[in-house]
Every structure is written in C-alpha cells, then in structure tokens.
C-alpha cells in the first residue's frame, strides 16, 4: 500500500458534484478537487480530467480521492467525470467507447477550459477505460487538450482488448459483458439528483443490454472495432503522450506500439504490475508514480523543466526468473531503459524448431499436435489484477498436451525485450484451427515458468479483416506474435516454446479438434535479444509510493464467497474453471451507502468435445442508501454448436423485496470462422 500524505503545497476544496452541460442539454456529473488559490480568477490552474463509467459517487470514490487530492494539492484542478448514463450523469450508456462518449469528452474539455478557475489547459488521465478514451479524444484534437497520460489501455480495440485475442474469442468477452451488464442499470444517488432518480433508474434498466450480443456480430476486425482504435491514424494524436502498463496486464503490448508510431513527445513505462496505477499495486515494487505524474504535468502545462523528458523514451522492469506459482506479491528484477523504440540495440535471434524437439537445433521433417481440451485449464488469467491466483501453474502440466521444443542449457544470461515471434510452416487436417504459443523459462530442476504467450486463429493467418478457411493438407505459413515482455533467462536455464491447438478457457475452442503438422527446420522462434547497457545503472530511482488519504470506508466479510478453482470429473471428463468477480461488501459512511456484490464466471467443457464449451455468469449487486435498497441479479449462459453461438441472459431488479423489472434474452449468432 502507498504511504499516505496529508499535507500538500496547496490547500484543496472538494466540490462533490459539478454539472457539466453537453450541447444536447444532457448534464454529466463530475467531482472537482480545486486548489483554493484557484478560487481567485487571478490564479487559474491547469485541469486534469479522468473520464469513466465506473460511478464516481460510490464506485471509484475511495481510489479517486487518493489520486486527485494528491495532484490537486500540487496545483491542479482535478475533475472526475462520469460518462453519460452512468453514476449521476444523465442519459443512457449504449456501449463501449462510442462516438457519443468521445463527442461528450470534447465538449467537456471545452467547458472546463472556459471556467474561471482553469487557465485554458486540460490534460487527461485514465487507466483502462479512461486510458482508452484519453487517446480517442486526443485523436479528435480538442484545442484545450495539452497532454494524455494513458495507463493499461490500447491503441487497437480488436487486437489488444478483452474481446478477441489473435482472432480467437477471448474468455473475457462474455465475462466483461456480464460485468458491465451488472453495473449499467444501477441508479443515481437521490441525495444528488433528487426526485429524478427513479425516472433515471428506470431509463437505465430499460436500456440495459448484454453487449456480448453486439460484440459477437463483429467477429472480424471491421468498422465497429476500427472506431476508437487510434492505430487507424496515429498522426491524429499530436499532443504529448505518457503510456504506462504492467507486464502482468493484458494491455502492455500497446505501450511499445504507441512509442513506435506516435510522432509527438512521448514516454513509455512498464513495470511488473497488473491492471493498476503504479503507486497502488498488487505486484511490487510499487513506485512513486504520482510524483512522476506531477512532473509530467508541470513540464507540459506549467513550463517547468522537471528533467522528466531528458530521460530515455522507454523504461521497463526487466523481470528475473521466478518459480511457477499462482500468485506473486513481488517480482524481482531491475529497471532498464531504451533511448528510442524500436531500439536499434534490440536484435532478433533465430532459434529453429529442430528435430528431436530441440529449440535451436537442426534437421527437417514434421511433428504433429492435436491437444486435449484440458490444455489451458491451469493458465490463470492472461493479464488482470494480479491476485486471486491469476498466474499459471507449472507449465509442465499444459506441456503434456503440447508440442514442446527446448533449448540446450544457456551458458550465460540471455535477456529479451519486445515481442517474440513464432514463424510457423504448417498444415491442418481441419478447415478451422487455432494455435497457442507459450514461451517458458525452464529451471535446471525442470520447473517451468510461463514468460509470455500468443494466440492465433489460423483462419486469420493473413488478415483479421478477411478470414479464410484452411484447406486440409495444404502447407501454409503464419506468424504468431507473443505479448511483449522483458525477461532475463538465467545461465543454466533452458528456453522452451510450447505449441498447442487448444487453450481453454482463455480462447474458445475451434468447432473440431484439429491436428497441426509443423514443418521442422522451416519453423523458427525469433527472440528480441537485449544486450547489456551500462547506462541502466545510472537511471534515476523512483520515489516512494505515495497517495492522499482515501475517503472513509469499511469492508465487511462475505459469507461463502465464490472461489478461484479448477475441477475435473474423471468419469465424465467434464472440467470447470471458476473465476470470482467483484465480490465485496463496503460501507461508505460519508455518503450513507453500503454496497454488496458477488460475481462468478464459470467455464465448463468436456474433454474430447469442443462443442460442449459453456460459460456461465452470475452477478448480484445490492445498494443500500437512505430510505432505499435495490437489488440487481443477472445470470448468463453462452454455448455453441458447430455453426452458431448462443447467448442467454436473464435480469431481475428488486426494490426492497418487490420485483419491479424482469427480462430475458436468447440470441443465436452465426460463427464466422471462430
């Protein structure tokens, strides 16, 4: 946990609710942290804006106070703005990263810049959703927007988000839909909006839809995903960008892409963290990131030479080997940096998939693999929050159903930084197939730790826009890009690459179990080798992790919470993977609210039958505020045939003990070579 700082250079006034008008008359709700000096029109200050759908009043309340009070205390007006239709903001939310959301953001920036306490300059900050829309709004070039700090986000909504992974259907697709579904119909606080609260609540309930249905209608990289993907035109972003992520987050590969393609001033930072701001982490070491944030803002909006932009463009945590385990509270390693990205110092090393399963060997011939459906059951999350058994277990479990190539023991430490590539020459016995590729670090005693992973729907081998079936028996080439990583393989360890044709539940299986024939000699792994750099030892140290105090809150124990577990029925072959979600009970006495939530995502499949795959979701949310108690309960089920996906969703809303709304969905969507 970060150290708590209570005194700051500028006294701060907190304005709980500020209404930001939109051109169509809709009002968005905001919270303002304002240096008292800015109350005088003679001393306006720059604004830092965070723009999210996660309910500033009660959802991100405690976290927001810790971040924004700190920054405001250093001379900035901080605004936490709820997206249209969320929290106390009027209207309805209709989807992720919509054009309406972006237009509202542009309008909000113009309004904020015109306030007497603002000097006309706005920067945007955000993690995840707020990191996405910061980049998206920057691409629209609002004149008052001067810089963007984007954390745990992406430049490409199709390639690097929770929907599709290498053209494969991600387990997070339905998962995230169910999560947003459980929050999109929650009411505003009557203490803020008054008697209008019930009408706003009913409007949200009526508008709430399972977003998974729309997402499954877009299984290729079409215009739906291009909208909001700033990689479509990097040149549209002309202001400075600070891009941050963590190696345990599934958005880390967006940082080097932004560095490589943006043309304006930019910095990149990746630590060992999961999906979190770098000062408040589940995976240590945390850093004094709020101090770095203020240095960035001081440079770009106050003209103060903080020295930050004199540092290398790309700074990352070079991770050391750790034995495989499902949770890490700390990842050993060290900070390293590159002056530019791509770095001319990084050079690819080719390791051929050779005969006798030797990585870096010689010889030709072929090797075949048809993986059982249990490969992937112990994969954990692929990027998430860094706790609750998010990491995979020993890779020898999944290697039992994979094609594995292993190097000779290393004679010296070998460090990589970048995206490993597996170049495959292969054929398939089925028209549809996927491939999962894991890069592992194998210790002398045989323990194997996953370093990074990549997946590819092989019908997308040439393009995510134009999928084409495989002709059984025909030879093809494909390149599987693994997630960017910084990792040091120690001397005496071996490098292994593991290839499987299933990786459930991370990726929904192909309609049939496919056998891939891999051509040895022609297939190879390309590793981005980073040579030693003496300048790493001169990098300035980060300060201690610090934040302002959070707002008052108390967590209560949950009786019989859902558990993170994998179970197998050895008689039937049925296997399940459970992922708990959003399970907590929290009282916030300063606003008189208690919220209780439980969530579970359950993936089920029977070995040998890819059409048996089922995902179930179950979310319960209770909100108690003065005079009112409301309950949301939603369940979902996703299944498939060889030709279609089926999505079933049910919703019940209670006020106290009275059922006030009920609705059911049952949709079939054709599979499009997925």
Quick description:
The protein is mainly beta and 674 residues long. The protein has eleven helices and 34 strands.
State the end-to-end distance. 42 Å
Going across the major beta sheet, what is the strand order?
Answer: 2-3-5-4-6-7-10-11-12-13
Class by alpha and beta content: mainly beta
Q: How many E-type strands?
A: 34
Please count the helical segments: 11
Shape: globular
Record the SSE blueprint.
Elements: E1 3-4, E2 12-21, E3 27-35, E4 45-52, H1 61-72, E5 77-82, H2 99-113, E6 118-127, H3 129-138, E7 145-151, E8 164-165, E9 168-169, H4 172-181, H5 190-193, H6 197-207, H7 211-216, H8 223-226, E10 241-246, H9 254-261, E11 266-271, H10 289-302, E12 314-319, E13 333-338, E14 347-352, E15 366-369, H11 396-399, E16 403-406, E17 414-418, E18 421-428, E19 434-442, E20 448-457, E21 476-481, E22 485-489, E23 494-500, E24 516-519, E25 524-529, E26 546-547, E27 554-555, E28 565-568, E29 574-588, E30 593-606, E31 609-625, E32 628-640, E33 644-655, E34 658-670
Q: Would you write up a description of this structure?
A:
This protein has a 10-stranded mixed sheet with strand order 2-3-5-4-6-7-10-11-12-13, with helices on both faces. Helix content is 15%, strand content 36%. It is built from 11 helices and 34 strands. With 674 residues, the protein is mainly beta. The model has no long low-confidence stretch (mean pLDDT 97). InterPro entries: AB_hydrolase_fold, CocE/Ser_esterase, Galactose-bd-like_sf, Xaa-Pro-like_dom, Xaa-Pro_dipept_C, Xaa-Pro_dipeptidyl-ppase/CocE. This is CocE/NonD family hydrolase. Pfam families: Peptidase_S15 (PF02129), PepX_C (PF08530). One of its GO terms (molecular function) is hydrolase activity. Keywords: Hydrolase.
